[in-house]
Amino acid sequence: MKRRWMPLVALTMAAMFTLTACGGDNAADANTNQGEQSTIVIDDKDPFETPDYNPEVTEAPEEITPEPEEEVAPEGMYRSELTGEWISVDLKDQRPIAAMVDNEKTALDHYGINDCDIVYEMVNSTLNNYITRLMCIKKDWVGTEQLGSIRSARPTNFMLAGEYNAILLHDGGPFYIDVYRTQPYSNNISGGFARFSNGKPSTYTEYVTYDTYKNPKTGKSYDGLKTRIEKAKYTTTYNDFYQGEHFNFSSKELDLSGESGSITAEKIALPFPHNSSKLDYNAETGTYDYSEYGKPHVDAADDNKVTTFKNVIIYRAGLTQYDENGYMVYDIENNWGSGYYITDGHGISINWVKVGQNGLTEFTNAETGEKLTMNVGKTYIAIVPKSFWDDLDIK
After folding, report:
1. Fewer Cβ atoms within 10 Å of its own Cβ: the N or the C terminal residue of the chain?
2. Contact at 8 Å (CB) between 293 and 105?
3. Which secondary-structure segment (H or E) carries 335?
4. What is the Cα 110 distance to its own chain's centre?
5. pLDDT digits (tens, 9 = 90+) for 31-82
6. Other beta carbons within 10 Å of 162
7. In sequence order, what DSSP letters do the residues of 291-316 get, joined into one string?
8. How confident is the model over 176-228, as pLDDT tens digits?
9. What's the pTM?
10. Which residue, 70, 49, 50, 72, is CA-closest to 60?
Protein backbone atom coordinates (compact mmCIF):
# COMPACT_ATOMS: atom_id res chain seq x y z
CA MET A 1 0.00 0.00 0.00
CA LYS A 2 1.46 3.36 -1.02
CA ARG A 3 1.28 6.13 1.52
CA ARG A 4 0.73 9.64 0.30
CA TRP A 5 2.07 12.58 2.30
CA MET A 6 -0.45 14.87 3.98
CA PRO A 7 -0.06 18.57 3.01
CA LEU A 8 2.47 20.33 5.23
CA VAL A 9 1.10 22.85 7.68
CA ALA A 10 4.13 24.98 8.33
CA LEU A 11 3.06 28.57 7.87
CA THR A 12 4.80 29.52 11.07
CA MET A 13 8.11 28.51 9.53
CA ALA A 14 7.72 31.23 6.90
CA ALA A 15 8.46 33.84 9.54
CA MET A 16 11.85 32.26 10.14
CA PHE A 17 13.38 33.50 6.92
CA THR A 18 12.72 35.00 3.49
CA LEU A 19 13.30 32.61 0.58
CA THR A 20 14.86 35.32 -1.53
CA ALA A 21 17.74 35.56 0.91
CA CYS A 22 20.86 33.55 0.07
CA GLY A 23 22.83 32.87 3.22
CA GLY A 24 25.74 31.40 1.29
CA ASP A 25 26.44 34.70 -0.51
CA ASN A 26 27.71 36.23 2.72
CA ALA A 27 30.90 34.18 2.68
CA ALA A 28 32.69 36.20 5.32
CA ASP A 29 30.30 35.39 8.13
CA ALA A 30 30.31 31.82 9.39
CA ASN A 31 27.15 32.41 11.36
CA THR A 32 24.90 33.92 8.67
CA ASN A 33 23.46 30.49 7.88
CA GLN A 34 22.06 29.90 11.32
CA GLY A 35 18.42 30.61 12.14
CA GLU A 36 17.32 32.78 15.04
CA GLN A 37 17.47 31.11 18.39
CA SER A 38 14.09 30.79 20.09
CA THR A 39 13.66 31.97 23.65
CA ILE A 40 12.30 29.59 26.28
CA VAL A 41 10.26 31.27 29.02
CA ILE A 42 10.23 29.39 32.30
CA ASP A 43 7.40 29.90 34.78
CA ASP A 44 8.54 31.36 38.09
CA LYS A 45 6.39 28.90 40.01
CA ASP A 46 8.21 25.90 41.41
CA PRO A 47 6.38 22.79 40.10
CA PHE A 48 7.76 20.80 43.02
CA GLU A 49 6.66 23.22 45.77
CA THR A 50 5.31 21.22 48.70
CA PRO A 51 1.85 22.16 50.12
CA ASP A 52 1.57 24.03 53.41
CA TYR A 53 1.49 21.79 56.47
CA ASN A 54 -2.05 20.89 57.54
CA PRO A 55 -2.43 18.56 60.57
CA GLU A 56 -5.92 17.51 59.38
CA VAL A 57 -4.53 16.05 56.16
CA THR A 58 -3.91 12.36 56.71
CA GLU A 59 -2.86 11.41 53.14
CA ALA A 60 0.74 11.72 52.21
CA PRO A 61 1.47 14.27 49.47
CA GLU A 62 1.84 12.86 45.98
CA GLU A 63 5.23 11.30 45.51
CA ILE A 64 7.42 13.25 43.13
CA THR A 65 9.46 11.31 40.60
CA PRO A 66 13.11 12.23 41.05
CA GLU A 67 15.08 13.68 38.17
CA PRO A 68 16.88 10.98 36.17
CA GLU A 69 20.52 10.67 36.99
CA GLU A 70 22.92 12.25 34.56
CA GLU A 71 24.48 9.71 32.24
CA VAL A 72 28.05 8.82 33.14
CA ALA A 73 30.32 8.22 30.17
CA PRO A 74 32.68 5.25 30.19
CA GLU A 75 36.23 6.33 30.82
CA GLY A 76 37.80 7.87 27.73
CA MET A 77 34.53 7.81 25.74
CA TYR A 78 31.85 10.23 24.56
CA ARG A 79 28.67 9.91 22.53
CA SER A 80 29.25 10.53 18.83
CA GLU A 81 27.40 13.52 17.45
CA LEU A 82 26.70 11.49 14.30
CA THR A 83 25.42 8.21 15.76
CA GLY A 84 25.01 8.66 19.52
CA GLU A 85 27.31 5.66 20.02
CA TRP A 86 30.13 5.64 22.57
CA ILE A 87 33.41 6.38 20.79
CA SER A 88 36.88 7.51 21.86
CA VAL A 89 37.03 10.99 23.33
CA ASP A 90 40.10 11.50 21.14
CA LEU A 91 37.68 11.89 18.22
CA LYS A 92 35.50 14.51 19.86
CA ASP A 93 36.83 17.52 17.97
CA GLN A 94 37.77 15.69 14.77
CA ARG A 95 35.72 16.82 11.80
CA PRO A 96 34.30 14.10 9.54
CA ILE A 97 34.85 13.41 5.87
CA ALA A 98 32.06 13.18 3.29
CA ALA A 99 32.94 10.87 0.40
CA MET A 100 31.12 10.88 -2.93
CA VAL A 101 30.60 7.25 -3.88
CA ASP A 102 29.60 6.07 -7.36
CA ASN A 103 26.33 4.14 -7.22
CA GLU A 104 26.28 2.85 -10.79
CA LYS A 105 25.97 -0.94 -10.97
CA THR A 106 29.44 -1.21 -12.55
CA ALA A 107 30.92 0.47 -9.45
CA LEU A 108 29.78 -2.36 -7.16
CA ASP A 109 30.87 -3.84 -4.88
CA HIS A 110 31.48 -0.82 -2.69
CA TYR A 111 34.30 -0.66 -0.15
CA GLY A 112 34.18 0.94 3.29
CA ILE A 113 30.50 1.94 3.31
CA ASN A 114 29.73 -0.06 6.45
CA ASP A 115 32.27 2.00 8.42
CA CYS A 116 30.46 5.24 7.65
CA ASP A 117 28.10 6.88 10.15
CA ILE A 118 25.55 8.51 7.83
CA VAL A 119 24.86 7.62 4.21
CA TYR A 120 22.91 9.98 1.95
CA GLU A 121 21.33 8.74 -1.25
CA MET A 122 20.13 11.34 -3.75
CA VAL A 123 19.55 11.83 -7.43
CA ASN A 124 22.76 12.82 -9.19
CA SER A 125 21.36 13.49 -12.66
CA THR A 126 17.98 13.72 -14.33
CA LEU A 127 19.40 11.56 -17.11
CA ASN A 128 20.16 7.84 -16.98
CA ASN A 129 16.79 7.20 -15.38
CA TYR A 130 17.54 9.55 -12.47
CA ILE A 131 20.63 7.72 -11.28
CA THR A 132 21.57 8.23 -7.63
CA ARG A 133 24.88 8.74 -5.88
CA LEU A 134 25.87 8.15 -2.27
CA MET A 135 27.49 10.67 0.06
CA CYS A 136 29.06 8.80 2.99
CA ILE A 137 29.91 10.71 6.16
CA LYS A 138 32.58 9.19 8.36
CA LYS A 139 33.81 10.49 11.70
CA ASP A 140 36.66 8.06 12.40
CA TRP A 141 38.48 8.20 9.05
CA VAL A 142 42.07 7.90 10.24
CA GLY A 143 43.37 4.54 9.04
CA THR A 144 40.88 4.18 6.17
CA GLU A 145 42.23 1.52 3.80
CA GLN A 146 39.75 1.70 0.92
CA LEU A 147 36.58 3.78 0.57
CA GLY A 148 34.64 4.17 -2.65
CA SER A 149 34.83 4.12 -5.55
CA ILE A 150 34.93 7.91 -5.71
CA ARG A 151 33.01 9.97 -8.25
CA SER A 152 32.08 13.61 -8.96
CA ALA A 153 30.03 15.95 -6.78
CA ARG A 154 27.05 18.25 -7.33
CA PRO A 155 26.16 21.58 -5.66
CA THR A 156 23.84 19.81 -3.19
CA ASN A 157 26.76 17.79 -1.84
CA PHE A 158 28.76 20.88 -0.92
CA MET A 159 25.82 22.33 0.99
CA LEU A 160 25.18 19.08 2.90
CA ALA A 161 28.85 18.39 3.66
CA GLY A 162 29.09 21.95 4.97
CA GLU A 163 26.38 21.19 7.51
CA TYR A 164 28.67 18.68 9.19
CA ASN A 165 31.82 20.80 8.71
CA ALA A 166 33.03 17.77 6.75
CA ILE A 167 35.84 17.66 4.20
CA LEU A 168 34.17 16.67 0.92
CA LEU A 169 36.06 14.07 -1.12
CA HIS A 170 35.12 13.87 -4.81
CA ASP A 171 36.49 13.65 -8.33
CA GLY A 172 35.52 16.92 -9.93
CA GLY A 173 32.08 17.83 -11.18
CA PRO A 174 30.38 20.23 -13.60
CA PHE A 175 31.30 23.90 -13.49
CA TYR A 176 28.10 24.54 -11.53
CA ILE A 177 29.94 23.41 -8.41
CA ASP A 178 32.53 26.21 -8.64
CA VAL A 179 30.52 28.78 -6.72
CA TYR A 180 29.99 26.22 -3.92
CA ARG A 181 33.42 24.63 -3.64
CA THR A 182 35.08 28.05 -3.27
CA GLN A 183 32.92 29.16 -0.35
CA PRO A 184 34.85 29.67 2.93
CA TYR A 185 32.79 26.96 4.65
CA SER A 186 33.72 24.42 1.99
CA ASN A 187 36.88 22.33 2.37
CA ASN A 188 37.14 19.72 -0.36
CA ILE A 189 39.65 17.50 -2.11
CA SER A 190 39.11 16.59 -5.75
CA GLY A 191 40.61 13.69 -7.70
CA GLY A 192 44.04 12.12 -7.35
CA PHE A 193 42.90 9.35 -5.01
CA ALA A 194 44.43 5.89 -5.09
CA ARG A 195 43.85 3.80 -8.21
CA PHE A 196 43.25 0.13 -7.55
CA SER A 197 43.60 -2.51 -10.26
CA ASN A 198 40.19 -4.19 -10.11
CA GLY A 199 39.66 -5.13 -13.74
CA LYS A 200 37.19 -2.29 -14.33
CA PRO A 201 37.41 0.85 -16.51
CA SER A 202 39.49 3.57 -14.84
CA THR A 203 36.33 5.51 -13.91
CA TYR A 204 35.57 2.85 -11.31
CA THR A 205 39.05 2.37 -9.81
CA GLU A 206 39.46 5.43 -7.55
CA TYR A 207 39.34 4.98 -3.77
CA VAL A 208 40.11 7.03 -0.68
CA THR A 209 42.97 5.83 1.54
CA TYR A 210 44.44 7.39 4.64
CA ASP A 211 48.05 6.43 4.02
CA THR A 212 50.04 6.46 0.81
CA TYR A 213 48.98 3.64 -1.49
CA LYS A 214 51.25 1.93 -4.02
CA ASN A 215 49.50 -0.08 -6.70
CA PRO A 216 51.30 -3.45 -6.76
CA LYS A 217 50.44 -3.96 -10.43
CA THR A 218 51.40 -0.57 -11.88
CA GLY A 219 53.93 0.46 -9.24
CA LYS A 220 52.38 3.93 -9.03
CA SER A 221 51.99 5.61 -5.63
CA TYR A 222 49.19 7.89 -4.46
CA ASP A 223 49.07 10.22 -1.48
CA GLY A 224 46.45 9.42 1.15
CA LEU A 225 44.29 11.73 3.24
CA LYS A 226 46.99 12.17 5.83
CA THR A 227 49.24 13.92 3.32
CA ARG A 228 46.61 15.57 1.16
CA ILE A 229 44.76 17.30 4.01
CA GLU A 230 48.07 18.61 5.29
CA LYS A 231 49.02 19.90 1.83
CA ALA A 232 45.64 21.59 1.48
CA LYS A 233 46.24 23.25 4.87
CA TYR A 234 42.86 22.13 6.16
CA THR A 235 42.36 21.68 9.86
CA THR A 236 41.38 18.16 10.88
CA THR A 237 39.34 19.52 13.80
CA TYR A 238 36.09 21.46 13.75
CA ASN A 239 36.55 25.07 12.67
CA ASP A 240 34.46 28.23 13.00
CA PHE A 241 31.93 26.98 10.45
CA TYR A 242 30.85 24.03 12.61
CA GLN A 243 27.28 24.71 13.69
CA GLY A 244 26.62 21.90 16.12
CA GLU A 245 24.76 18.62 16.22
CA HIS A 246 21.94 17.62 13.88
CA PHE A 247 20.13 15.16 16.11
CA ASN A 248 19.07 14.26 19.60
CA PHE A 249 19.69 10.61 20.48
CA SER A 250 17.47 8.75 22.92
CA SER A 251 19.00 7.31 26.08
CA LYS A 252 16.68 4.29 25.71
CA GLU A 253 15.26 2.39 22.75
CA LEU A 254 12.53 4.37 21.01
CA ASP A 255 9.23 2.70 20.18
CA LEU A 256 7.35 4.75 17.60
CA SER A 257 4.37 2.38 17.47
CA GLY A 258 2.57 4.37 20.15
CA GLU A 259 3.26 7.77 18.65
CA SER A 260 0.41 9.79 17.21
CA GLY A 261 0.13 9.16 13.48
CA SER A 262 2.64 6.29 13.59
CA ILE A 263 2.77 4.03 10.53
CA THR A 264 4.06 0.52 9.97
CA ALA A 265 7.37 0.69 8.12
CA GLU A 266 8.92 -2.74 7.63
CA LYS A 267 9.41 -2.57 3.88
CA ILE A 268 10.48 0.62 2.12
CA ALA A 269 10.77 0.94 -1.65
CA LEU A 270 12.45 4.19 -2.64
CA PRO A 271 11.25 5.85 -5.86
CA PHE A 272 14.70 5.80 -7.48
CA PRO A 273 14.00 4.08 -10.82
CA HIS A 274 17.60 3.48 -11.90
CA ASN A 275 18.69 1.24 -9.03
CA SER A 276 15.40 0.50 -7.19
CA SER A 277 16.74 1.08 -3.67
CA LYS A 278 14.98 -0.80 -0.88
CA LEU A 279 15.18 -1.04 2.90
CA ASP A 280 13.83 -4.09 4.71
CA TYR A 281 13.43 -4.28 8.46
CA ASN A 282 15.50 -7.06 10.01
CA ALA A 283 13.80 -8.02 13.27
CA GLU A 284 16.83 -10.01 14.45
CA THR A 285 19.19 -7.03 14.28
CA GLY A 286 16.62 -4.27 14.75
CA THR A 287 17.99 -2.51 11.68
CA TYR A 288 17.13 -1.91 8.03
CA ASP A 289 19.03 -3.89 5.39
CA TYR A 290 19.77 -1.91 2.25
CA SER A 291 19.47 -3.42 -1.23
CA GLU A 292 19.65 -2.15 -4.81
CA TYR A 293 19.67 -3.56 -8.31
CA GLY A 294 17.62 -6.46 -7.00
CA LYS A 295 20.08 -7.78 -4.41
CA PRO A 296 21.44 -6.98 -0.93
CA HIS A 297 24.09 -4.30 -0.83
CA VAL A 298 27.32 -5.66 0.66
CA ASP A 299 30.61 -4.11 1.67
CA ALA A 300 33.59 -5.89 0.13
CA ALA A 301 35.85 -4.43 2.82
CA ASP A 302 33.66 -5.84 5.60
CA ASP A 303 33.60 -9.54 4.70
CA ASN A 304 30.70 -8.87 2.32
CA LYS A 305 28.33 -8.06 5.16
CA VAL A 306 25.04 -6.44 4.23
CA THR A 307 24.84 -2.68 4.72
CA THR A 308 22.30 -1.92 7.44
CA PHE A 309 20.99 1.12 9.30
CA LYS A 310 19.28 1.77 12.62
CA ASN A 311 17.63 5.00 11.50
CA VAL A 312 16.01 6.01 8.22
CA ILE A 313 15.13 9.57 7.22
CA ILE A 314 13.30 10.17 3.95
CA TYR A 315 12.34 13.68 2.95
CA ARG A 316 11.13 15.37 -0.19
CA ALA A 317 12.52 18.42 -1.97
CA GLY A 318 12.18 20.02 -5.36
CA LEU A 319 15.04 20.02 -7.83
CA THR A 320 16.25 22.38 -10.52
CA GLN A 321 17.79 21.03 -13.71
CA TYR A 322 20.61 23.20 -15.04
CA ASP A 323 20.89 21.97 -18.64
CA GLU A 324 20.29 19.19 -21.13
CA ASN A 325 23.13 17.17 -19.59
CA GLY A 326 20.95 16.42 -16.59
CA TYR A 327 23.03 18.37 -14.08
CA MET A 328 20.84 19.51 -11.23
CA VAL A 329 20.59 20.80 -7.68
CA TYR A 330 18.06 20.01 -4.97
CA ASP A 331 16.07 23.06 -3.86
CA ILE A 332 17.06 22.79 -0.21
CA GLU A 333 18.70 26.15 0.47
CA ASN A 334 16.35 28.47 2.38
CA ASN A 335 13.55 25.99 2.09
CA TRP A 336 11.43 23.55 4.07
CA GLY A 337 9.34 20.45 3.57
CA SER A 338 8.14 17.17 5.00
CA GLY A 339 9.16 13.53 5.29
CA TYR A 340 9.41 10.48 7.53
CA TYR A 341 11.59 9.26 10.35
CA ILE A 342 11.65 5.44 10.57
CA THR A 343 13.15 3.04 13.10
CA ASP A 344 12.35 -0.41 14.54
CA GLY A 345 9.55 -1.14 12.08
CA HIS A 346 7.55 2.08 12.50
CA GLY A 347 7.66 5.64 11.24
CA ILE A 348 6.41 9.12 12.07
CA SER A 349 5.90 12.26 10.05
CA ILE A 350 8.62 14.91 10.23
CA ASN A 351 9.26 18.40 8.92
CA TRP A 352 12.57 19.86 7.78
CA VAL A 353 13.93 23.36 7.32
CA LYS A 354 17.31 24.59 6.09
CA VAL A 355 18.43 28.22 6.29
CA GLY A 356 21.44 29.15 4.13
CA GLN A 357 23.86 27.05 2.14
CA ASN A 358 25.63 25.30 4.99
CA GLY A 359 22.97 25.87 7.66
CA LEU A 360 21.85 22.74 9.46
CA THR A 361 18.90 20.86 8.03
CA GLU A 362 16.76 20.79 11.15
CA PHE A 363 14.34 17.88 11.48
CA THR A 364 11.34 18.13 13.79
CA ASN A 365 8.52 15.82 14.83
CA ALA A 366 5.55 16.96 12.73
CA GLU A 367 3.10 16.23 15.57
CA THR A 368 4.93 17.95 18.42
CA GLY A 369 7.19 20.43 16.66
CA GLU A 370 10.08 19.25 18.82
CA LYS A 371 13.55 18.51 17.51
CA LEU A 372 13.74 14.97 16.16
CA THR A 373 14.98 12.37 18.65
CA MET A 374 16.46 9.22 17.11
CA ASN A 375 17.71 5.83 18.19
CA VAL A 376 21.42 5.34 18.68
CA GLY A 377 23.03 3.98 15.53
CA LYS A 378 23.83 4.67 11.89
CA THR A 379 21.47 6.58 9.64
CA TYR A 380 20.37 6.37 6.01
CA ILE A 381 19.01 9.62 4.54
CA ALA A 382 17.23 9.77 1.18
CA ILE A 383 16.23 13.02 -0.52
CA VAL A 384 13.35 12.22 -2.86
CA PRO A 385 12.36 14.61 -5.67
CA LYS A 386 8.87 16.01 -5.11
CA SER A 387 7.71 14.65 -8.46
CA PHE A 388 8.50 11.10 -7.27
CA TRP A 389 7.11 11.41 -3.75
CA ASP A 390 3.82 9.65 -4.44
CA ASP A 391 5.77 6.61 -5.65
CA LEU A 392 7.42 6.14 -2.26
CA ASP A 393 6.09 2.83 -0.93
CA ILE A 394 6.17 2.17 2.82
CA LYS A 395 4.36 -0.77 4.35
Report:
1. N
2. yes
3. strand 335-343
4. 19
5. 334 333 333 333 333 333 333 334 343 444 455 555 556 788 899 999 999 9
6. 28
7. EETTEE-EETTTTTEEPEESEEEEEE
8. 999 999 999 999 999 999 999 999 999 999 999 999 999 999 999 999 999 99
9. 0.83
10. 50
